[in-house]
Amino acid sequence: MVGSLILKKNKMKIGFSSLVILLFTGLIFSCKKDNFNYPKDTVGSSKIIYFPSVETKGDRTIYLSQGDSYGDSGAVAKLNGADVTYTTTGTVDPNTPGIYNITYSAVNPEGYSASDWRTVVVIGSDVAGNDFSGSYARYTPDFSGSPNGESAVWTKVASGIYTVANPGGAAGFETATVTAVNYTGNKIAIPMQYAPDFGGLVSTTSATYSSPSFTWALSAPGFGTQVRYFMK
């Protein structure tokens, strides 16, 4: 009996020792470090793609009087922290009133691109006597009946340049303000600009002015694309 018990005890000891050796061996192999010495610009079998970035230098929106000189400040383009070349689309004729949009773009070897922009407004000498200041109520397209929206309020700040509060004639935007221009004759527009009150880029299309009314389609976050009608 005693010998039998001792044998069983020894067997238990042998089994436990073997288990300890196996666990220790497994621990050694599990602690082996992976090899992270990948070739440059790769992770394992995957290639790292670096995307370009472009940032306009100077002001995004510039207002010139007709005949002023203009020198573009350009942009800065980067790829993986290094300067890269960029292309410029658009030109400015400072002798001709108008709204000029310039785009700066850069592309990486994989074909992914990035861009930034600048808008230059040339104000004609013929608008010096114009003053479109005032409060314009929003109406239906035929201007019949009573106003169907809030008023847009124009304030002249310089020849051909105005601040416009609530350019969309929408409730809740009474103090939301953008810069509008009368760049020649009766031609008006909101040149593309970042407007904090709207939380993004704002501009207009289909803009017309015929005293005492004006129309435009406002492009802004949260606004539709319909033409809006206003009368003083």
Question: What would you note in describing this structure?
Answer:
The chain has one helix at about 1-30; strands spanning about 40-45, 45, 50-55, 60-65, 75-80, 80-85, 85-90, 100-105, 115-125, 135-140, 150-160, 160-165, 175-185, 185-190, 195, 200-210, 215-220, 225-230. The chain has about 230 residues and is mainly beta. It folds into two domains: about 50-125, Immunoglobulin-like, CATH 2.60.40.10; about 125-230. It has a nine-stranded antiparallel β-sheet, with no helix packed on it. A hairpin with a 2-residue loop joins strand 11 and strand 12.
Helix content: 10-25%
| DSSP summary: helix tally | 1
C-alpha Rg, in Å? 34 Å
Structural class: mainly beta
Mind summarizing the main beta sheet?
A: 9 strands, antiparallel
Describe the structure in brief:
With 232 residues, the chain is mainly beta. The chain has 2 domains: 48-123, Immunoglobulins (Immunoglobulin-like), CATH 2.60.40; 126-231.
Give the SSE layout.
Layout: H1 2-30, E1 42-43, E2 46-47, E3 52-56, E4 61-65, E5 75-79, E6 82-83, E7 87-89, E8 98-107, E9 113-123, E10 134-139, E11 151-158, E12 161-165, E13 177-184, E14 187-189, E15 193-195, E16 200-210, E17 213-219, E18 227-231
Parallel strand pairs: 4-9
Antiparallel strand pairs: 1-2, 3-5, 5-6, 7-8, 8-9, 10-11, 10-18, 11-12, 12-13, 13-14, 15-16, 16-17, 17-18
Annotation keywords:
18 strands, 2 domains, 232 residues, 4-stranded mixed sheet, Immunoglobulin-like, elongated, mainly beta, 9-stranded antiparallel sheet
